[in-house]
Amino acid sequence: MQKRVPLLLLCFIVFYALVHSIRHLPGLLHGVLNWNGETTYTLSIIRIAADMAIAFLFTLFPYLIFYQWYPKKKTLLIGIGLVICLAGCLLLDFCWVSFMEYPTRVRLSNYLPQAAFFSTIYALFGTVFYFIRYVQFKERNETESLLQSRQSELSFLHSQINPHFLFNNLNNIYSLVYHKNDQSLQAIASLSEMLRYMLYDTGDLVPLIKEISYIEKYIALQQLRFEEPSDLQIKVTGNLDEVNVPPLMLIPFIENAFKHGDVTAPQWLNVVLSADQQHIHFFCSNKKTAKQKDALGGIGIENVRRRLELLYPKKHRLEVKDDDGLFTIKLELHHGK
Q: What pTM was computed for the model?
């Protein structure tokens, strides 16, 4: 938290003017600037400037004392500092008033009530100013910490996708090479293109059409594992060029389907996606194998769930159903303003 003495001074001048304008309002209305009976304009200006300077000390010292010791929770030092500084300011003010009123003698009984009233107001102003600044500083720090934590978690979640994807597909390619499948070279080339997209083409948001292209390449890569392409259906509608989404948000659902789905069953996978300027609707269902395990696909779907919570709080609905023989995912995402 930085000191803001110039800002404090500016606010104090406005505050001082508001407080004392009421006292001198009758004279101001008649075009007379008079301070405690001063007979000349020059003396009034000098008296006002000096009184304002001393009054500002009543405001400045509490502000500096709290600035120095309140974050450290030095309550005793704060109390002692306030007593010493405010007593010193009162003494200075009393000396100034006595000088200006000379040869008339200023009595403490007449001076103290008014001086104590105004000095308390000034000191409270400095204290309130400090705590307003302190609360703003704490809120800003908490917001920045939350944003940094959120960004770090998003980066971590994003980084989890790449090894997860790479591990699965290297296993598939290893199987193709092991069985001397003619499609192994094509699989390696497809994987290279997908890795290039993951490493270099993904920012905070990407066009939805790129994500769909990525999903199609992933499915084509998976199909190379089979002698005959598996029976699946994909339907995509909407203006995909005009819709942006977080990268690699939908692919874990497709990965999960290929990992746990019964690829030998007719129409074992059904994917439907529609998008407009405000919403994205995604539906994915796959038939499960008889020995289905780990239906949620490890970190994949839970990763997506957490990313949605961070990026689209209260702007999405994700439903995951694991019924007998069928695993279904429904995602409704409000991405517009």
A: 0.55
